[in-house]
């Protein structure tokens, strides 16, 4: 784990990996989107609006997965003081917030024709909205501290405390059985028909790869910023 | 133990010198006054929604003193002095939490009596609200101490504290308002559970934040 604590070694892997993740992700998203729009049937009940699924589910997964990754990075920073973990957590926060917002927006647009309402104060939606505010809080907290590129250990504590919300989101549809459906895809299989399901695999994997590429790019930008800073300081000192 | 009592007494004295519970209580009552202006003074509507409004008002009032819980002592070096005496940061956070709660919890519960009259709450609702506040305000105090320790020494700490604390307080408000109905026993239990959880983790989270803030 600490093998990648050396930024040069990390960059040696991150740099060639970024274009593969970004272009591979975009390609998968395009395939998934074309398949989802033209080659999958409309739902017998929801009609065409079911196609929002192909954006909504990956966005929800990345919003929650983002904070999970952020919490793991915070733990690594807090316990092992891994020098890259703070940079990683900070890099995750913005795309995580973006995908959470995307999940809420697509869910709202999907809810209007199928549920007849833009918004319902149901457990899943409320906890997801709370997650968005947690992201905002984390970003504001990270910006308020003086650490350059990375985050302070105090910010890492907030990342860990906020992780309480993740299991709540995950279980919310089971605990409060309200408007949002229960999980369709579980370890036991899927209750979605294969004809509708298969493009979802493409978009989910595609958005995930794209997420990884964005995080790597943001981490590289942070490292570059730190480097510029250090160089300016050295030049000023000599 | 002795040191803890001393810290609690000192914090309470400091908070009374700074105006004491006047600020949160006045704020709480002001929100209770503004609400009827905003939705119209319909007695039935107020009776139905008033309990939840008072929960939101209590949350906002609990947010007000958060800036003053940790930051002044941190800036003046008192926290370091206490740590040098051998008091652990967790113990200090626990003492701060108790003092913070004593500073706004009971006063808010007293202020709820006139506020309930302003909002035309029935006797039963008032009873449930007081029970919920008695159980829920320690959770708010615990959250306040965590956020106070996290934001101490940052630029724009006040606005930041609100942004960080309000989302985490959502369960308390949901269950607190949920306990107001006729069959609110379940809501009260869930409120007690979330409040207990917050009180249990607060000394450790806030203590860790105080220690991390020294670096």
TrEMBL record, chain A:
* UniProt entry keywords in alphabetical sequence: Cell inner membrane, Cell membrane, Cytochrome c-type biogenesis, Membrane, Transmembrane, Transmembrane helix, Transport
Main subcellular localisation:
membrane
Q: What does this protein do?
A: Required for the export of heme to the periplasm for the biogenesis of c-type cytochromes.
Q: Which GO terms describe its cellular component?
A: plasma membrane
Top-rank lineage group of the source organism: Bacteria
| Gene name of the record | ccmC
Where in the cell is the protein located?
A: Cell inner membrane; Membrane
Where would I find the Cytochrome c assembly protein domain in this sequence? Answer: 28-180
TM spans (from-to): 20-39, 59-80, 92-111, 123-142, 154-176, 196-217
Please report the name of this protein according to its UniProt entry.
Answer: Heme exporter protein C
Q: Return the InterPro entries for the record.
A: Cyt_c_assembly, Cyt_c_biogenesis_CcmC, Cyt_c_biogenesis_CcsA/CcmC
Automatic annotation (TrEMBL), chain B:
Matching entries from Pfam families are given as: CcmB
A molecular-function term among this protein's GO annotations: heme transmembrane transporter activity
**Transmembrane segment boundaries:** 21-39, 45-66, 98-119, 131-150, 157-178, 190-210
Compartments, as annotated in UniProt: Cell inner membrane
* GO cellular component terms given for this protein: plasma membrane
Provide the primary localization: membrane
Q: InterPro entries recorded for this chain?
A: Cyt_c_biogenesis_CcmB, Cyt_c_CcmB_bac
The Gene Ontology biological process annotation of the record reads: cytochrome c biosynthetic process; cytochrome complex assembly
Membrane association type? Multi-pass membrane protein
User: What keywords are annotated for this sequence in UniProt?
Assistant: Cell inner membrane, Cell membrane, Cytochrome c-type biogenesis, Membrane, Transmembrane, Transmembrane helix, Transport
Function statement: Required for the export of heme to the periplasm for the biogenesis of c-type cytochromes.
Instruction: Please give the family membership noted in the entry.
Output: Belongs to the CcmB/CycW/HelB family.
Q: Which protein are we looking at?
A: Heme exporter protein B
Which organism does this sequence originate in? Answer: Sphingobium boeckii
């Amino acid at each position: 784990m600490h093998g990648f604590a050396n930024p040069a070694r990390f960059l040696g892997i991150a740099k060639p990996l970024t274009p593969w993740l970004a272009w591979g992700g975009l390609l998968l998203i395009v395939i998934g989107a074309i398949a989802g729009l033209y080659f999958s049937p409309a739902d017998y009940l929801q009609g065409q609006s079911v196609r929002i699924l192909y954006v909504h589910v990956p966005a929800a997964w990345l919003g929650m997965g983002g904070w999970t990754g952020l919490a793991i990075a915070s733990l690594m920073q807090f316990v092992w003081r891994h020098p890259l973990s703070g940079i990683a957590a900070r890099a995750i926060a913005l795309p995580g917030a973006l995908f959470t917002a995307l999940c809420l927006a697509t869910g709202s647009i999907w809810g209007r024709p199928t549920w007849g309402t833009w918004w319902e104060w149901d457990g899943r939606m409320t906890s997801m909205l709370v997650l968005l505010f947690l992201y905002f809080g984390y970003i504001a907290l990270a910006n308020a501290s003086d650490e350059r590129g990375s985050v302070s250990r105090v910010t890492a504590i907030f990342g860990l405390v906020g992780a309480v919300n993740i299991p709540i989101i995950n279980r919310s549809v089971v605990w409060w059985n309200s408007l949002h459906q229960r999980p369709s895809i579980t370890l036991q299989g899927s209750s979605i028909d294969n004809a509708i399901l298969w493009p979802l695999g493409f978009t989910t994997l595609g958005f995930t790869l794209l997420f990884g590429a964005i995080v790597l790019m943001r981490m590289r930008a942070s490292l570059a910023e730190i480097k510029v800073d250090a160089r300016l300081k050295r030049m000023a000192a000599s | 133990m002795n040191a803890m009592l001393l810290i609690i007494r000192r914090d309470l004295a400091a908070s009374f010198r700074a105006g004491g519970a006047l600020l949160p209580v006045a704020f709480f009552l002001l929100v209770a006054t503004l609400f009827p202006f905003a939705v119209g003074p319909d007695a039935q509507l107020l009776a139905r929604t008033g309990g939840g409004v008072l929960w939101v008002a209590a949350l906002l009032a609990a947010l007000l003193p958060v800036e003053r819980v940790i930051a002044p002592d941190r800036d003046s070096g008192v926290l370091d002095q206490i740590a040098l005496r051998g008091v652990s940061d967790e113990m200090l956070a626990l003492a701060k939490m108790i003092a913070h709660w004593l500073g706004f919890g009971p006063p808010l519960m007293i202020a709820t009596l006139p506020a309930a009259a302003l909002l035309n709450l029935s006797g039963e609702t008032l009873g449930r609200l007081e029970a919920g506040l008695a159980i829920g305000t320690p959770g708010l105090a615990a959250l306040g101490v965590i956020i106070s320790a996290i934001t101490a020494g940052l630029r724009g700490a006040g606005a930041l504290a609100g942004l960080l604390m309000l989302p985490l307080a959502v369960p308390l408000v949901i269950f607190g308002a949920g306990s107001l109905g006729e069959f609110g026993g379940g809501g009260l239990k869930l409120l007690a559970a979330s409040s207990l959880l917050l009180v249990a983790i607060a000394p450790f989270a806030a203590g860790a934040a105080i220690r991390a803030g020294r670096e």
